[in-house]
Predict the 3D structure of the following.
Amino acid sequence: MTAIEFNHQLVNLEKNLERFAYSLTSNHEDARDLVQETFLKALTYREQFTDQSNLKAWTFTILKNTFINNYRKSVKQNTAFDNTKDLYFLNKPGESAENKADANISLEEINKKVKDLEDEFRIPFEMHTSGYKYKEIADEMNLNIGTVKSRIFFSRKKLMKALEDYEPGKS
């Protein structure tokens, strides 16, 4: 297979690769980055591809392995190692938001602003922040998933607007 044929067939796989990448990442930007990284690797290692192989399977394997490697790398970067003899750092109590007086006030203020939202915005927002998925909220409230997403988005916007002048310690 010539380089031009290879490139042409690779470009024709782009939409399928994007769908697969989105199914792994659940984020359009991350999916797009993953496809770009897959293209780079496929072009870099084109010489390792044999004509008797399935190009689609080969590139999907590259994409999947790239995703897995990136995931493992991110987990490793976010892992804290405590090499002290008695695990002092892992067992050391840290400062939490609950221990700070101004954090409690700001949390109270935020909750007050959330309660001030109209029910059509407040209920989906509270459900989402309680851990419900968009689909679950849509089913529970008998709404389209797009409506749920937009109401949560507008709730965030309204809260940011309502709290833009807020300073902890001022009530």
Remarks:
- The chain has a mean pLDDT of 83.
- The domain at 3-77 is CATH 1.10.1740.10 (Rna Polymerase Sigma Factor; Chain: A).
- The chain has two domains: 3-77, 97-163.
